[in-house]
Structure formats: C-alpha cells, structure tokens
Amino acid sequence: MSKAGISEEARPWSEVVNVSTTYCYMSLKIASRAFRIATRHYSTRSNPLRVLGIETSCDDTSAAVVTSDRRILSEVRHGQRDMHEPMGGIVPTLASLGHSRNLPNVICQALDEAGLSVHELDGVAVTRGPGLPPCLPVGLNAGKTLAAVCKKPLIGVHHMEAHALTARLTESNAPAFPFMTLLISGGHTILLTANSLGDYEILVDTMDNAVGEAIDKTARLLSLPWEGSSPGPALERAAAQGDPIRFLQRLPTPLLNDKKSMFAFSFSGLKTAVARLVEKENVSTTQDINDVAAAFQARCIGHIEQKLKLALDREIKCNKKPLSSLIVSGGVASNRYFRDRLQSVTAAYGLPLVCPPPKLCTDNGAMIAWAGIERLQAGLVDDYTITALPKWSLESLKDAL
Ligand code: KG4
Ligand code: ZN
Fold first, then answer.
1. Is residue 318 part of a domain?
2. Which ligand is in closest contact with the Cα of 229?
3. What is the CATH number of the domain that holds 150?
4. Residues 296 and 150 placed together within one structural domain of the fold
5. What predicted TM-score, i.e. pTM, was given to this entire model?
6. Which cofactors does this protein require (predicted)?
7. What is the DSSP letter of 316?
8. Which of 56, 79, 73 is nearest to 144 (CA)?
9. Per-residue model confidence (pLDDT) at position 259
10. Ligand 1 in contact with 244 (CB < 6 A)?
11. Which domain holds residue 379?
12. Low-confidence stretches of the chain (pLDDT beneath 70)
C-alpha cells in the first residue's frame, strides 16, 4: 500500500477516477455558471415569480408556494407531535420516517391550494441544511426530483438564512440590508449582521446549547405538555402566570463577568441549574411550576439582552453600520414576553424591532420559498447534484457569491 492508502495496482484506476471526477466537476461548474447566467433574467421579469418551498430539516413537514410580489399562495404543515411527545423529545429517525410518509401529500396540498400545477412554478427551493441528518435528504430528494423532471431551477436553501429573510416577505415595509438578526430556535442562538443576500457576519453564537433546547428541557422538567408542535408555548404561558423573583437567585446569569466569552451565549448552565432546583425543591404546585418557569424565562431573555446591547454597541457605535432594523426570528421569537423585552432594548438605539408573525417564526415552507425567490432573482441557483449539509456555516455562503 502506498502512503495515500491506495495499492500500486489500483493507482492507474484511481488516476482515471480522479481525472474523470475532475472532468465531471468542471463540467458541472460550467453548467451551473451557464444556468446562473440563464436565470438572471428572473430579476427583470414582469410577471411575479412563483416558487415552491420545501422544509424537512427537523420535525415539521412543510411546503408552501410564494410569489416574488410577496404573496403566500399556500402554506401547509404536517407536525409530528404525536410521534415525539411520548418520547420526551425529537427522535431523528422517527422524524425522517414522518417526512417520508407525509411530504408527498403536503406538497400536493400546497400546489392545490395555490391553484398551480408543478409545471407552472418558476423554481423549487428546498432546505439543504443545517438540520437533522436523516431528515434533510427527504425534502432535498423530493425537491431535486421535482425540479429536474420539470426542468425548473433548484435552490438549496440555508435554513437560518431563510429565518433571517422571513421579515422581508412578511413586513409591508420590507427591512433593507444591512440589518441585525437575532435567530433564536431549537437548534440555534445567533446574533448576526446581514450585510446583503448571502453575506452574513456572526457577532454572537452559542458555545453550548441553543435557547430553544434549554426551553424544551425546562418544560420537560416541569412536566409541561406540548402545545402545537413544541413545548415552548406552554412554558411561555406558565411563566406569564408566575413570579420571576421567587427563584431568580437560584438561577445564575450565564457568563456574567466572563471577559473571554463576552461575545458568546451559553444556556447549558442555566438548564442544569433548573434541573438542580427542581430536584432540591418540591416543585409540585401549579404556582411553583409557574414561578420556576418565570425565573428561567427572565434569565434567558436577560442574557440575550445583555449580548444584544454589546453587539449593537459594536455595530452602531464602533463600526458605524447603518442598520435598518433588528429582525428577530426562529421558533422562540414567537414568545411575546421575549419580543416585548427586546423591543425596549432596540428602542433605546432608535432601531425598529421587526418580528415575523408567530406562525412564520417557527419552521415553515414559506420562508424557504421566499429565500429561494431572493436567491433566484440574484441568479444564485444550484445544480441537481447538491447533497444535504447537516452542518453548514452561514458565513460560508459568502464564498459562493
Ligand atoms: O425554529 P423552530 O420552529 O425549529 C428549529 O429550527 O429549531 O424553533 C423551535 C423552538 C423549540 O425549542 C420551541 O420550544 C421554541 O422554538 N418555541 C418557543 C415558543 N414557540 C416555540 N419558545 C418559547 N416560547 C414560545 N412561544
Ligand atoms: Zn428553524
């Protein structure tokens, strides 16, 4: 065996494979560039574009048809609460099975409600990543096949870019670039500046858990039932009836006075502190549960507020960025208490706070379709060979511009 782990006899074949792989890669690059040039006319077309969006990155099976003049023609979702709630959380292989079962009907229903056949679409957008490894390929393969059969442009969408761009679909006064975005979901807690489409600069990221993960764990510890497709709404409701002061001192503020991690979020310590509190105290009455939920929620948003102020100071005061607004999106952004607290912070900076409607803060096909439209108009389409990217850095999108 050679150093590279290829036997000498196999070398000629490996060279053939290498040469043909390089050739294929080059052909794909050329084809994809030609495709991009061919799709540039979409930005100047007079009829609005109609794009199908498909989302299967986690546990919601969703599809929607959206137009470039910002109309949502249809928005269909199939949740999986009945599968995951009894398991105490999302089981990726079960979620994948649910997508395989439900996606065909969800897509058909989205097209029916939009009154369109697949041939009348101008493109197919689908979540390429990040997300659960067994779930992403279900949507991606469906999207690729539909696009290829109908010879339509395919747009592989970054799930977090879609959350960040949702407000440009839903707000009558669409926020202009550059804007700051706070993405708070079950998988991410990120504060970033969106300079332009595909150009994102992460200012604060989590060093451990996402805030939604901590919310889900706390809701489970407090035996709160799921509402809709997640435990978050029940925690919000309990917290609204609780006294945050009673247990506040038992839950530490994350990363307080930690100079090394100034530009970082952390939620795992808070999650553990709630577990310890529930174990030590007899948290049994509804009032006890509500009070723990209220203290936990207050600490979460207090931590987010503190980092948001640092990021706003850096971007507005130091870097003189002409930010148009702060957009808050992701499932946790549907929490009214979080929105009100964030509103007070942005008001102090004279910055409008923009939140998509709660329904479109959680995972949905409309946000994928809209991100697809923005990319299609910019000539940023993909070829039919793209694969799922369960881990995919948002900042790396800049390399493909
Ligand atoms: O964006 P999303 O639908 O899925 C991911 O990409 O993760 O976010 C789901 C997260 C879950 O952790 C869920 O419990 C949380 O959002 N969530 C909420 C609320 N609604 C959903 N958290 C707090 N308050 C809510 N009202
Ligand atoms: Zn999401």
1. yes
2. 1
3. 3.30.420.40
4. no
5. 0.86
6. a divalent metal cation
7. I
8. 56
9. 80
10. no
11. 50-171+361-399
12. 1-45
